[in-house]
Amino acid sequence: MMKIGLFTSGYQRNPLEHAFEDAKRFGYDYIELWGGRPHAFAPDLKNGDINIVKKLIDQYEIQVKVYTPEHNAYPYNFMIGSEQMRKDAIDYLKLSMEMGKEMGAEFTLMSPAHAGYLTSEKEIWHRLIQSMTELADYAKKINHKIILEALTPMESNVCTTANDLARVFDQIKSDNLVGMCDIVPPFVQHESIMAYFDKLGDKMKHMHIIDSDGTSDTHMIPGEGVLPMKELMLELNDIGYEGTATIELVTAYINEPRLYARRAINKLKELMN
């Protein structure tokens, strides 16, 4: 039985405690903790806020399985800008891994953001491999794991397909670097979702399960878009996927995260049955 996680990004205008309370109330198995202010920005955690997170984990008996630091936009993106900017982002992600490990997360999640329109494919790939090698080496040093996520072409021009992920794993041989499938990127590109399992093999450790409008990077409640969710759940059941699957409601439902977090897991469980 796959484990279902609640993503906290949509709760950023609410107290973080609401996310833990709701995960417990609504029957989620774990939390995927978004690492942005005001809740779990890595430098704030380092300055003492990690104790708030640990207290919530203990109080609600809900584990943070995945820590997902914000690094797709301002101010951190290791794929764009000068070498000093890249190093700054790498240092931030190393700190994020330390904080992820300290809160008991199994993984820290990274998704390479946009590298800029004038950057060549050769430059993009060199920078990606250089950065992920540094991060994977650090993950090994502290005995932690990185999940690498492919994004949609609307969000990034770096790593957007199962082939891109497989190419990274072919070049970086590390037990501390694994992959995942957010089901929206393959769906909007007319790529096979299930092919991720074939192409990534034992590197395929995590999923973001949400619905899609089929044309944009919008993340919708399961069952409310055009993705064949019920059939996908049957396929995942047939292959015996028992990993983690976070319902990644980002900010489309930020006005009422508690109502939609409840609806999302109820809908997904209906689809799974």
UniProtKB/TrEMBL annotation:
Listed Pfam families: AP_endonuc_2
Q: Name one GO molecular function term.
A: isomerase activity
- Class in the EC hierarchy, top level: isomerase
- InterPro entries assigned to the protein according to its UniProt record, in alphabetical order: IolE/XylAMocC-like (IPR050312), Xyl_isomerase-like_sf (IPR036237), Xyl_isomerase-like_TIM-brl (IPR013022)
Domain named Xylose isomerase-like TIM barrel: residues: 20-270
Q: Provide the alphabetized UniProt keywords.
A: Isomerase
Say yes or no: keyword Isomerase present: yes
Q: Which Gene3D superfamilies does this UniProt record tie to the protein?
A: Divalent-metal-dependent TIM barrel enzymes (3.20.20.150)
**Keyword Isomerase: yes or no?**
yes
The protein, known as: Fructoselysine 3-epimerase
Protein species of origin: Bacillus salipaludis
Query: What broad taxonomic lineage does this protein's source fall under?
Result: Bacteria, Bacillati, Bacillota, Bacilli, Bacillales
